[in-house]
Each structure stands twice: as structure tokens, then as C-alpha cells.
Write a structure and sequence with these properties.
260 residues, Rossmann fold, 2 domains, 4-stranded antiparallel sheet, 9 helices, 12 strands, 32% helix
């Protein structure tokens, strides 16, 4: 049996005196699209940063392709997994194309500086910008873009990086309705068709139910409920997790999770 892309065992996350997660076990496989849901401050960002290796857990182990995460050289790990943070700061004097090309750096040589962008890197970055509907902004300064445009350029950088595992912290921030659905379709395609794995924190329960294959819900009391989306995203689980009644409405294949 081959190892999963990412495996966590006995994971405990602590911030200050507060335990966010206790004894979490998680296997993330190619083809899976995980959504992470929970109240503000529940620990979604901390979990994603820990799975990416940016934060150390208070207890437990994390493996990437069967190797302990802390045994990977950063440049090697960046070819396998990527993290898109929640906040994308404006970059003065940097074009959208240059920002997207940052995703190609792990694939250039041995990670030594300076790095040079080859013709293939530029082609891949431009294609990624096109997939996120910002190809026409390639020459624009990042500081001149709207929040939604910067978010889509950042997503294009992740697509250009082409990790086997993508960890995304609120990737739909600042996006309008059309681009929210387009991004979710792109992420689902990366998992389902391209054989990658995606883990994304979201606030929109209906989009989570529509596109995710798996879900992890911060259920309170340092407890997480994880599994197949259809089994986890229930009225009872979500109502308890958010402290507010959630109703599941269905019309044909369309499902909506709304505040009741």
C-alpha cells in the first residue's frame, strides 16, 4: 500500500492556554477535495499552517508521502505541497505575471538564488493566469488591482506551482459570485480530474456541500469531525458547530445549507 499524500496522527494544536484540536487523525489522498469549516477563531488557519509545516503541533505527527514533514527540505516540500494564505498583501512594483511566476521557483534548479524564469515558466504562469480569468492583467502592478483580482492572481501562482497537495485558507475571499463558483470548479477539477488533493477553509456552507468530497468540521471542545462530505455536512453537525440552526435544502442535485 502506498502512503497517502498527507497523514496526521494524534495531532494536538494549542494556542496560548487554549487547545484547538485534540488527537486529530487525518489521511488526505489524491482525488480528494477537503473543506475545513468552523467558527471564526476555531483553528482553521492554525490547522492549515500546521499541515503545511509552518507551525509545529503541540503533539502528534505529520507525514508527507510517508516521510515526516520536518524531514523535508523546504524546496523539496514546495514541489509537493503549497499553502495559499488568507491575506494577500499588495506588492508594489510587482506585475501580476511576476507574482504568478513565484509559483515556479520551487521547480527551477536546486533552489539557489538568483533564479531565472524560462520560456516554459512564463507559458505555465500565463496559462494559470488565464485559468483564473486574469490573463489580461499580466502586465499590471499588483498594487493597482482590486482585492478580488489580487486573490485570483495569487491562486494563479498556486496553479503555476502545481503542487500535488494544495492547502488554501479562505481562497474565496473578495471574490464575486461568478468567480467563487469558477474557483471551486477549478479546485474540484484539480482533485477529480488531475489527481491532486485540495484542502480549503471556507465560510460558504452551500459551496462546501456542492463541491467537496470530504469535510472537516471544528465541532467545539477541541474536537473535529472529519470524513466524507455527505456524512459530515449534516444539519445536526453544522448546527452544533456554529451554534446556530442550519437547514439542508435540496432541489434535484442542488443542495443548499442555510441558516434556519
Amino acid at each position: 500500500m502506498t502512503a497517502p499524500l498527507l497523514r496526521a496522527r494524534g495531532l494536538r494544536l494549542v494556542v496560548g492556554a487554549r487547545t484547538l484540536v485534540h488527537a486529530l487523525g487525518l489521511d488526505i489522498e489524491p482525488g480528494q477535495f477537503w473543506v475545513v469549516l468552523g467558527k471564526n477563531g476555531a483553528g482553521k488557519t492554525t490547522l492549515l499552517a500546521t499541515l503545511a509545516g509552518l507551525l509545529a503541533p503541540a503533539a502528534g505527527t505529520i507525514e508527507l508521502l510517508g516521510r515526516p514533514l520536518d524531514a523535508w527540505r523546504p524546496i523539496e516540500a514546495a514541489r509537493v505541497r503549497a499553502l495559499l494564505p488568507q491575506h494577500i498583501e499588495p506588492q508594489f512594483g510587482v506585475s501580476a505575471l511576476s507574482a504568478a511566476l513565484l509559483g515556479r521557483h520551487p521547480h527551477q534548479g536546486r533552489g539557489l538564488w538568483p533564479m531565472w524564469d524560462g520560456a516554459d515558466d512564463v507559458r505555465i504562469a500565463l496559462d494559470a493566469l488565464a485559468r483564473l480569468d486574469v490573463r489580461e492583467l499580466a502586465a499590471r502592478d499588483m498594487a493597482s488591482l482590486s482585492g478580488g483580482e489580487r486573490q485570483r492572481v495569487a491562486l494563479a501562482g498556486l496553479v503555476a506551482q502545481d503542487p500535488r497537495l494544495a492547502l488554501l485558507d479562505e481562497p474565496l475571499s473578495h471574490l464575486d459570485l461568478h468567480h467563487q463558483h469558477a474557483v471551486m470548479q477549478l479546485l474540484r477539477r484539480r482533485a477529480e480530474v488531475e489527481g491532486r488533493a485540495v484542502v480549503a477553509s471556507l465560510h460558504d456552507l452551500s459551496l462546501a456541500a456542492r463541491f467537496a468530497t470530504h469535510a472537516l468540521v471544528f465541532a467545539g471542545g477541541a474536537r473535529c469531525i472529519a470524513g466524507r462530505a455527505a456524512e459530515v455536512l449534516t444539519e445536526a453537525t453544522l448546527s452544533a458547530a456554529f451554534g446556530h440552526r442550519v437547514r439542508r435544502l435540496a432541489e434535484g442535485e442542488l443542495v443548499a445549507l442555510v441558516a434556519g
